Amino acid sequence: MTSPGIGVGVSLHVDVRDVQRVLEQLHHNLSFGQLEAFLRTQAVPFLQQRAAARFAGEGDEVSGRWSPLQLSTLLTRAQHGFPTAPINVRTNQMKSFVTGSFGDVVGAGGISVLTWPSQANYGGALAMKIQTAQAGRTSPPTVARPVIGVGEKDNIFITAALTAHLMSGIGSRIIP
Fold first, then answer.
1. 73 within 8 A of 87, measured Cβ to Cβ
2. Cβ atoms 99, 55 nearer than 8 A
3. Per-residue pLDDT tens for 146-169?
């Protein structure tokens, strides 16, 4: 309860030049060139590393543990001179593509979009291999062993990295 005639006052003084500098820096950090640089230097290497770990571990918490290969698949691999392990790495084409792709970054209407792995040079047998790995097949029966995926922890990491990117050059200007 307050007594009549007693009040609290707050006075806030803002130098509009500081606000303008912060907004200009944020505008710069949000430009297509800066977002493209962020995606290529932060997001893509992270996704490549996660995919490499997924291949090495034959699955992870995002894709689930990959089912072992059927005996018939192991025999077919051996008959054709391919190694029987690891899973999803027979000719190394799919693994090299996924872990080596830099992705495609496109900007339009103030939006920057990363498509990873890159869709360039992606088709034919390679597209079929990735489709089979991601979703499986009915004929011949093949279970899904996804090689591409992003989970909650990945989203948290990329969001935190993006926040740091957006705040770069701003933090020191907020408090004099």
1. no
2. yes
3. 999 999 999 999 999 999 999 998
